[in-house]
Design brief:
This protein has eight helices and no strands. With about 190 residues, it is mainly alpha-helical. The protein has a domain at about 20-130: Orthogonal Bundle (Actin-binding Protein, T-fimbrin, domain 1).
Length: about 190
């Protein structure tokens, strides 16, 4: 991790906000799920340090979608190991994760936003269930679409109804022109 020195002002506030979002319970759940899926224990390191090189993440995505990451770099400098994280991100995106659920490489490699990394792993767990992964599960199952079919008669009947949601609303009219009993002295 790069040494940036002390933080001040809004940067310090943002870092405190990110640290406040971190849940050791969610981290533990993610770690246990990864261990169950890949069939091996994390190294004797803290959660974020164990994930930092991207090797475990690449093994995970390869278990969910075999062949997603063709080559996992197990040695080399920081740049080589960052390639693992990038390969995982590309494979997760191809697996169906939206960009909003992914994390940036620096979030993990420089420990800038570990809660986002954990959120990504939990999202991957939800998508694995949706894709009928036959293994351990993480988090709630994503709901399926519930598309409804209406007849023309039902649609016409619905057009004549007044929506209850809008009853009593002024539909954006301003109250600035109303007299509230205030007098203005000039």
């Amino acid at each position: 991790m790069a040494n940036y020195g002390p933080s001040y002002g809004s940067l310090a506030e943002n870092q405190a906000k990110i640290a406040g979002k971190r849940s050791t319970d969610l981290d533990r759940e993610a770690q246990e799920w990864i261990e169950a899926v890949i069939g091996e224990k994390f190294p004797n390191l803290p959660y974020d340090d164990a994930l930092k090189d991207g090797i475990l993440l690449c093994k995970l995505i390869n278990k969910l979608q075999p062949g997603s990451v063709a080559k996992i770099c197990t040695s080399g400098g920081g740049f080589k190991l960052r390639e693992n994280v990038s390969a995982f991100q590309n494979a997760a995106r191809a697996y169906g994760l939206p960009d909003a659920e992914l994390f940036q490489t620096v979030d993990l490699f420089e420990k800038r936003n570990i809660p986002q990394v954990t959120q990504c792993i939990h999202a991957l767990g939800r998508y694995a269930q949706k894709k009928k992964f036959n293994g351990p599960t993480l988090g709630p199952k994503m709901s399926d679409g519930n598309q409804r079919q209406f007849t023309e008669e039902q649609l016409r009947a619905g057009q004549g109804m007044v929506g209850l949601l809008n009853d009593g609303m002024n539909k954006g009219a301003s109250q600035s022109g109303q007299n509230f009993g205030l007098t203005r002295h000039i």
